Structures are given as structure tokens and as C-alpha cells.
Amino acid sequence: MTDADLLALAIRLARSAAAAILTVRDAGFAVERKDDQSPVTAADRLAEGIILEGLRAATPGIPVVAEEECSEGVVTAVGDRFWSVDPLDGTREFAAGRDHFTVNIGLVSAGRPHLGVVAIPATGEIFSGILGQGAWKEDASGHRAIAARRPPAEGITVFASRHYSGDPRLAAFLGDRAVAEIIEIGSAVKFCRLAEGGGDLYPRFGRTMEWDTAAPEAVLHAAGGRCARFDGTPLEYGKAGWENPPFLCQGRP
After folding, report:
1. CATH code at 102?
2. 124 plus 216 within the same structural domain
3. Domain limit, last residue, from 123, 145, 167
4. Is 150 helix (H, G, I), strand (E, B) or coil?
5. Mean pLDDT of all residues in 191-206
6. Half-sphere exposure of residue 166, counting CA atoms within 13 Å on the CB side?
7. pLDDT digits over 31-78, tens only?
8. Structure confidence at residue 167 (pLDDT)
9. pLDDT by residue (tens digit) across 129-179?
10. Which residues are bridge partners to 247 per DSSP?
């Protein structure tokens, strides 16, 4: 399959998973706790099942690493290429009745995100990108190319995690930068807003996993933005335990 074929597959599955998540939300659901005390719902499991079935049927030679399987102790051996899936990124937001949750499907190649799809079920937006080929957004108004922006002279827009609201590390990091606005939202939506030119900076100090970032990082890089550790070195994928270090996302330099 070509990159375009793989992206089309991920878009189709993300769209199906997004519809299933909204069905669960409309019907009502219980919130459970995993061993690490993070929340999980029927929507997480249903969406992951849809995505895993579709990826494994269409691309049997590409391993899939998915959040809920990993939380249940499934160990997946990965090679040069593998799918990294978060079926419902932002479960806290979903459980609280907010709209900032996503479906993330990313393809990792040689330790780096190569292509990705991020769907925002509540708004109907689907972001996608292939490294070196471009990034796109699909919504009610159609399908179009997107690009990250350069910081405006009047001050930057900063995205921050709602879960870490008031984190003193953010103020210390921003220092004397000219900041126009700080927007606190959950999930990979922050990456998407940077990719479409809706902001400039997203520093992440708290814990994330590879499935949280593989797809949205691919979209952001494809749109001309950046995501790296604070020392400028790239995030690596396929690590033991799948946990990311702190990182910084930016629009165009």
C-alpha cells in the first residue's frame, strides 16, 4: 500500500471510531479506572476494537500498538514500521462532558512518526498528514491543506494541558516572552490547532505515551511545525514502556 492508501485507511477507521464514540456518549456510560488510575470507558474499548480490526485486516504485516491492549498487558513486538493508536485521547475530557477528545492513528517508520490522522469527534474535524507531502483538514466546509504559522509580532498563543492547569513550570518556561493568550484544553487537539495555524507553542511537562503523540506529531510536522524534546532532539518511538519525555511543540520557526 502507498502512503496515500495507508492514510486513507487511517482516515476511514478514525471516522468510524469517532462515530462509535459519539454513540456511546449519547447513550450514557460508566467511567472505570485502570491499574494506573487513569480513566477508561466503553467508548475507548469500542473505538479501539474498530481500529484494530481494520488495521490488522488491511495491513497484516504492520504491527499495531494500542493503548487499551497495552493497559491489559498485551506486549507487541514492533519492527521498522508499526501503527500507534490511541482510540480515545482525552478520556478525562470525554468523561467530564467536554469536547476536547480525539482519535489518534499514527504510522511510525524508523522510530519517527511518518503519517497520522487525528479525528475530533465532537466537532467532526479530521486532521491528517504525511511527512514531506503535506497536511490537511476535513470538516463540514470541505477538505483543504493546512500549515502552521510563524509567531506573530504582537505575541504568541500558547496551548497548555487542562489537566495541569496552573502548572508553575509553564510560567517559568515562558519567562518574558510576549504572550497574547494561554488556552488550556485537553488531548491532541492542541497539536491540531498548531498545525492549522491557530497558535504557536505547546510545552508539555507531564507524562504522555507514544500513542498520545505519534499521530498528532506527524500532522504537525507535515504542516511545517516542530515537536521535539526541550533540548531540541527528536522524540523517539518504539521505546520500551512507550513513555515519552517532556517535549515542546511549535509552529513554524
Report:
1. 3.30.540.10
2. no
3. 145
4. coil
5. 97
6. 0
7. 888 777 788 899 999 999 999 999 999 999 999 999 999 999 998 989
8. 83
9. 999 999 999 999 999 999 999 999 999 999 998 776 678 899 999 999 999
10. 204
Whether residues 19 and 124 fall in one domain: yes
CATH number of residue 225's parent domain: 3.40.190.80
The residue behind cell 506573530 is: 152
- Which run of H or E residues covers position 26? helix 3-27
d(CA 66, CA 64): 6
C-alpha of 219 from chain center: 9
Examine the domain organization and report whether 90 and 193 are in the same domain. Answer: no
Residue 14 buriedness (CB in 10 A; 0-12 / 13-18 / 19+): buried
Query: Are residues 223 and 137 part of one domain?
Result: no
Q: Rounded to an integer, what distance in angstroms lies between the CA atom of residue 238 and that of residue 110?
A: 9
Q: 43: domain range?
A: 3-145
**SS3 of residue 60 by DSSP:** coil
Handedness of CA 144, 147, 152, 155 (dihedral sign): positive
